[in-house]
Design a protein that fits this description.
Elements: E1 5-8, E2 15-18, E3 26-28, E4 35-38, H1 43-60, E5 67-71, E6 74-78, H2 80-88, H3 93-123, H4 130-140, H5 146-160, E7 165-168, H6 170-188, H7 191-199
Helix pairs in contact: 1-3, 1-6, 2-3, 3-4
Bound molecules: zinc ion.
Zinc ion binds near residues 11 and 12.
Length: about 210
């Protein structure tokens, strides 16, 4: 069970005492219905399983062909990075860099940060920079946009399917598994609960912030 804490609602500023929650229970604001937190008893082990598998699937997406395009007997193998570059081609370099950052860089940084935090929690001793890494993980979370890239790829595939034969490579399947694992990671990455893991070490340093 999690311990009770007093918090102000993000949406309406109503001060609420978050009660001790049991497995699967969530705390909501009585005035506006905002969900403060959801507690899962095995959140850490589930988060470790999904975040580490997300990282493995994402890294594997760079190793194999992403798409194989065949037209008039010519075969062209497209990697994940080439796919990202081609989606941004004809536009500004900043668009390509933005897509690389939100599809590759931000997810790798977020997942590495989550795993680092989980090691700290497992050792029950915050490793150096744990507090800063936690802040960065939650700051970067909205900038994780790999799903948008996948959607873009599927839309452009409909366009090029009439020009030749398009096949999915192993990297494509790995990338889809990464997106599914990442969605599961988000379910168990509860900001309030993660800060609670370290609160008993230093209440001021590891206080939950909006
Ligand atoms: Zn509220």
């Amino acid at each position: 069970m999690s311990s009770p804490t007093k918090l102000a609602c993000h949406e309406c500023d109503q001060v609420v005492i978050i009660p001790a929650l049991s497995d699967g229970q969530k705390a909501i604001c009585p005035r506006c219905g905002f969900v403060f937190t959801r507690y899962f008893k095995k959140a850490r082990s589930r988060l470790l399983a999904f975040s580490s598998s997300s990282l493995v699937f994402l890294l594997l997406s760079f190793v194999f062909p992403f798409l194989i395009f065949t037209t008039q007997g010519n075969e062209k193998v497209i990697s994940l990075v080439q796919g990202l570059q081609s989606m941004g081609s004809g536009t500004y370099l900043s668009v390509v860099l933005f897509m690389l950052a939100t599809t590759v860089l931000v997810p790798v940084m977020t997942l590495t940060g989550i795993n680092y935090t989980l090691i700290s929690a497992k050792l029950d001793k915050p490793l150096p920079f744990t507090r800063h890494i936690l802040k960065l993980v939650f700051l970067l979370q909205p900038w994780n946009m790999a799903e948008i890239f996948l959607l873009g790829i599927l839309v452009s595939m409909i366009k090029i399917a009439s020009l030749g034969d398009v096949q999915f490579g192993w990297s494509f399947y790995s990338f889809v598994l990464y997106i599914i694992s990442m969605a599961a990671t988000r379910v168990f990455l509860d900001k309030y609960q993660v800060w609670q893991w370290f609160r008993h070490h230093d209440k001021r340093a590891y206080s939950y912030e909006r």
